[in-house]
Amino acid sequence: MNFQSLVLRSLTYFLIVSGYTLEFFLVFTDQSAYSQTLVCNIGSTPKHPGNYKLLGNIYLKQKKFQAALNCFELALQDERGTKDPELWNNHGLALAGLKKFDQAIASYDKALQISPGAVFVDRVEPRSQPEDYYLWWFNRGTALVDLKRYEEAIASLDQSIKIKPNYSFVWFFRGLALFRLERYTEAKSAYRRAVLLSPNTPYIASKDLLSIQDYVIYYGQAEAKSRLGSYKDTIQIFERGQKIRRDNPQIKFFGDNISEDFYEAYINGIRLLDQGENQKALIAFQQLIAQNPNYTNAWYGKADALTALSLYPEAIAAYDQVITLEPDDYASWYKKGNVLKKLNRNEEALQAYQKAIDLSGGFSEVWHNRGVIFYNQNKDAEAINAYSRSLKANILWGGIAKIDTQYALAATLYRAERYDESFFAVEKVLKEQPQYQEALELQKLIKKMRN
After folding, report:
1. How far is residue 439 from each of residues 379, 405, 425, measured CA to CA in Å?
2. 322 neighbors 345 (Cβ within 8 angstroms)
3. Judging by beta carbons within 10 Å of its beta carbon (0-12, 13-18, 19+), is residue 394 exposed, middle or buried?
4. How far is CA 442 from CA 143, 305, 419, 449, in A?
5. pLDDT at 432
6. ∠ at Cα 407 (403, 408), nearest 5°?
7. What is the pTM of this model?
8. Is the bond into 126 cis (omega within 30 degrees of 0)?
């Protein structure tokens, strides 16, 4: 398993009962002094379970799993340590790194048995929150995947999804478990969800996780990229999966050749969209819908074609059909919001964007678009909040540059008469792009107001 580093919290830790900094701790402890015996050299720092946990976390990030395990086990010898669910989780990660998966699961179970509100031994606040537990269910699920206990893995991963449905890696591992159980359609759906939530993540990065015959991940990626509007990527990714499938004819993905031909017809519709043949693409998707009215991908393609043809009311109706079939698909809510925005149906657009945020956890483009609507409605406080959230969020879709959001924030702050903040915001724009004309003009206006 190569994903341990992904699930260790990136928090600022501190030394218990000391004023030392993390840098001090790294310099004045012997990081190479560990062995198979229970040794965790924390130097002259207090022998507190929080300090053992701190050094164990450092070793864990360095993938020095035995050293991390030594530190965590010393921390767990203290009663205070046994009440820290995160410590049990990280103990499990160290065991998983050593491929001791049964023992890792036992540690994750210890973490999950501790109720929210528990105190972490390496910091006083905040206490453990209910949402923290998604990581521990996720880690438990990945260990079960390693043990090939796939049904149990899915059950554990589903518990993680109940707490945090927008964590992309839980969907990836769910797809992996489903593929191993030969539940290919469900696996494809899970892979699609993983890519939609985090499209820039290289999921196909570990040969020990994916077999060459798991072309289902490519089909799931292709569907996700098509929904993201990345048609060239869709075609390339599909063709990779198609080649693997044809090179391994003994592995069946679809139940019959008719279904397989149907899927390839959908990809051909995407090819037409990529070529700008929107009317032809619309006809192709309508033919698929006529054969299977519940085929979500075809409705998606139809909605995109209608949007490209500026047939906005019809496009909204098509996105609504996607939402009827897959109500938790954030991309359809986002695209519907974009079309509603084009029609100046702004309140409905805001509602659609909010739904996309709720389902995805939020992303740069949706926050930016909310900011535009609020700005046009003269709701400066709401626009400033939306633009600020956009700048902090990940870009999932492209098409909106961060620098433009930064300028929009500066302009809104100026209109709200928050001149010092506006000046600071516009300076960020000009530092990155000194010839940004609108920012130069705004800078002049702000200087006049500040004088």
Report:
1. 21, 12, 10
2. no
3. middle
4. 55, 39, 11, 11
5. 95
6. 115
7. 0.84
8. yes
Instruction: Tell which wins on pLDDT, 130 or 244.
Output: 130
The single-letter code of the amino acid at 218 is Y
Place of tokens 């909204």: 316
pLDDT at 252 over 90: no
Using an 8 Å Cβ cutoff, are 298 and 269 in contact?
Answer: yes
Instruction: Answer positive or negative: Cα dihedral of 335, 338, 344, 347.
Output: positive
Residues 6+ apart with CB under 8 A from 449: 414, 417, 419
Domain positions in the chain:
1-164, 171-201+211-253, 255-320
* Dist. CA 371–CA 373, nearest whole Å: 5
Please give the share of the chain, as a percent, with pLDDT higher than 90.
75
Structure tokens at 8: 């260790």
pLDDT at 126: 86
Same fold, 171-201+211-253 and 255-320: yes
Residue 253 phi/psi, 5° resolution?
A: -100, -50
Burial label, 433 (beta-carbon count in 10 A; 0-12, 13-18, 19+): middle
The matching CATH number, chosen from 3.40.50.720, 3.30.70.141, 3.40.50.620, 1.25.40.10, for 255-320 is 1.25.40.10
Predicted pLDDT at 255:
57
Could you confirm whether domain 171-201+211-253 is CATH 1.20.1070?
A: no
What tokens appear for 155 in the block?
A: 């059950």
Distance between CA atoms of 93 and 59, rounded to whole angstroms? Answer: 11
Query: Which pLDDT tens digit goes with each residue over 45-63?
Result: 888 999 999 999 999 999 9
Selected from 3.40.718.10, 1.25.40.10, 1.10.10.10, 3.40.50.11720, the CATH number assigned to the domain covering 1-164 reads 1.25.40.10
Would you call 362 helix, strand, or coil by DSSP? Answer: coil
Q: Which of 180-194, 209-223, 252-266, 341-355 has the lowest mean pLDDT?
A: 252-266
What is the pLDDT, as a whole number, of residue 211?
Answer: 65
Collapsed DSSP state (helix, strand, coil) of residue 268: helix
Q: Quick one: pLDDT at residue 409?
A: 97
Q: Do the Cβ atoms of 307 and 291 come closer than 8 Å?
A: no
Provide the 3-class DSSP secondary structure of residue 75.
helix
pLDDT level of residue 322 (50, 70, 90 thresholds)? very high
Rounded Cα distance between 187 and 102, Å, is 25
- As given in the structure block, the two tokens for residue 284 are 């192709």
